[in-house]
Write a structure and sequence with these properties.
It is a single chain. With 388 residues, this protein is an alpha+beta fold. The chain is built from ten helices and 15 strands. The strands form three sheets. Strands 13-12-11-14-10-15 form a six-stranded mixed β-sheet. A five-stranded mixed β-sheet has the order 3-9-8-7-6, sandwiched between helices. The longest helix is centred in the N-terminal third of the chain and has 21 residues. It is globular and about 70 Å long. It starts with 8 loop residues before the first strand and ends in a 6-residue tail after the last helix.
């Protein structure tokens, strides 16, 4: 599983002392080649963390040798010193990898961070940690790497898809600040398929558009969201682009579902399907509006099929629809028909973890699915009792 499922990758996850509780907090993923192609997508938040700004720059040439990730601190809103610390981290990774026999420069290293915003990283612990992690790199280190990037996550998240002769694997972290613009979320994907940077970029953007970009847990967009896809070419197989894109999408979809399933304080996973929209953009806009309706999220937590709150959310959008033709189903029961009372709401069974809301706009043939979760007292506690 995870980032070392594909050939040509090693990884490690260690405790560098960044987190005060002593838990693992530093991960390193290295592409051993022969190809070192890469692509990435990042948060669309205008306030971007130093590691995001750095990694966007180093990806300009479509190549990466390694990714270093830390939890325990986001290195966001930390000014020039924060960017210098990111640069120093990349330089340290390049130094230790070069000492192992590779010719690596800082410009070959992506950096990703997650944790509390506005706090400088303890570089006296992080840099020695990089050296320690490099010493523990292994083809079996993917799971440890996934554990090391957790913050408020209760479980580590990994996924793999294996095709005939090639593989796509990945790891993710995220449990809060999950909203479109990338669902704080870090993802590293790896493949041993022989695909160039252009092919990787196309596949990654196509996959994230319908997976991570359609996860909306709490309507809060992170400063640090990063999704990277690295190709080693170690399998020697060049799959058809559509087949490769579908494999990347499958891994992203699995990881996105795991993010929602581990959302802070959540007790329900909500699948919002908008159907018969005039355009896909309309379907996405409506789905996101429903996902961000706190009154509805509270009702779902209380197992109340309050379809009026669904209509209220739809009505705040610019989507094309006639209010008298809207239909809403909750867990398969059409509680609203033609903008009014439908089947008996008492027929809706909401005892289980997954809740499905179907919104029929009766305005076209396009559709979209957005994943969200309920709003609970545990979520409020986790985001008010202490800094996270």
């Amino acid at each position: 599983m995870s980032v070392t499922a594909a050939k040509g990758f090693t990884a490690a996850g260690i405790a560098a002392g960044i987190k005060q509780n002593g838990n693992p907090d530093l991960a390193l993923v290295v592409n051993t080649g022969p190809r070192r192609a890469a692509a990435g997508v990042f948060t669309s938040n205008r306030v971007k963390a130093a590691p995001v700004l750095w990694s966007q720059r180093v990806l300009a040439d479509g190549e990466l040798t390694a990714v270093v990730l830390n939890s325990g601190g986001a290195n966001a809103c930390t000014g020039p010193q924060g960017f210098q610390d990111t640069h120093a981290t990349a330089e340290k990774v390049a130094e230790v990898l070069s000492a192992k026999g590779s010719e690596v420069g800082a410009g070959d290293i992506a950096v990703a961070s997650t944790g509390l915003i506005g706090i400088l990283l303890p570089m006296d612990k992080l840099l020695p940690g990089v050296e320690k992690a490099a010493g523990e790199l292994s083809e079996h280190g993917g799971e440890k790497a996934a554990i090391a990037i957790k913050t408020t996550d209760t479980v580590h998240k990994t996924s793999v898809v294996t095709k005939e002769g090639w593989t796509v694997g990945g790891m993710a972290k995220g449990a809060g600040m999950l909203a479109p613009g990338l669902a704080t979320m870090l993802v590293v994907l790896t493949t041993d398929a022989d695909v160039d940077a252009k092919g990787l970029d196309s596949a990654l953007r196509g996959a994230t558009r319908v997976t991570f970009d359609r996860v909306d847990s709490d309507g809060c967009m992170s400063t640090n969201d990063t999704v990277l896809l690295l190709a080693s070419g170690a399998s020697g197989v060049t799959p058809a682009q559509d087949e490769f894109t579908e494999a990347v999408r499958a891994v992203c979809d699995d990881l996105a579902r795991q993010l929602i399933g581990d959302a802070e304080g959540a007790s329900k996973d909500i699948r919002i399907e908008v159907i018969n929209a005039a355009t896909e953009d309309d379907a996405v806009e409506v789905g996101r509006s429903i996902a961000r309706n706190n009154l509805l999220k509270c009702a779902i937590h209380g197992e109340d099929p309050n379809w009026g709150r669904v209509l209220s959310a739809i009505g705040t959008t610019r989507a094309a629809f006639d209010p008298d033709e809207l239909n809403v189903a909750i867990n398969g029961v059409w509680v609203c028909k033609n903008g009014s009372v439908g089947e008996d709401r008492e027929l809706v069974d909401m005892r289980y973890r997954e809740v499905t809301i179907t919104a029929d706009l009766a305005a076209g043939s396009e559709s979209a699915v957005i994943w969200a979760n309920d709003l609970t007292a545990d979520y409020v506690h986790e985001n008010s009792a202490y800094s996270s």
